[in-house]
Amino acid sequence: MTSRQYGSHRKPTFGQRVLGAVLSPRTRKLIFLSSLAGYLQKVTNPDNEMVEKINELFSLSRDPTALKLPMQMSARIWSAFDESALLQAGINTPALSELSNSKLSAPQLRIISNQLINTVPCWLIYGSREAMRQDICKLLQTPSEAFHTPSTAVS
Description:
0% strand
């Protein structure tokens, strides 16, 4: 079984299969984490300082501005994610964007990361479930204030 068999349960389109074949695991990781950060923070127009902070956290690219496009596309990339599934799983946070400001237990982090991994488009699978889970947990455990400057702060 390959690591690309989990994620969205829909049959991948031709374009998705091509993307999965041509994008390197490093590029998929860059797109996955930067788009997820944008989705979690509800930021679609990040400034340079914000992408630099995310890049410092994960060492994704030599050029931090490469994170901007995936962040701008985050709502589209993560459109299949159902936040109500978290409520059904016992995560009582009204919005996913509030998770990084919450003290989450290890079981809660596992539930959230599994939900995200099960939703991710197949062409963004970049590693093992455990590697992706660790990255998601790292992102979720980073306070949202760490990413925001006065010009990027969400209201």
